[in-house]
Amino acid sequence: MSIHPFRIIGSETGCVGLKTRKLELGTKNLVGARVTQARLARGMKQVELLAQLQLSGIDMSIPALSLLEGQKRPVSDKELCALADVLHVSVDWLLGR
What we know:
Blueprint: E1 6-10, E2 16-20, H1 32-41, H2 46-55, H3 62-69, H4 77-87, H5 91-94
Antiparallel strand pairs: 1-2
């Protein structure tokens, strides 16, 4: 099963659309594509996910989340648990088990 992550973008006219990821997925984590899939399924923007993570005690920047979703950055165990909680999925699901 192939997962094609998307990024939500805005334009100067206020229109919002989906744009496919420019770079190939990396190999630094197993969960990035699943995080993107779950976030989009819940209709969340990256900033909304970051706000929920911050309420859970995880402080992450937009670039760090982009790298995580692009599998270009490792994920800590604390981040993994918080992502699962915020996205209402299991850690096993995020890991593709």
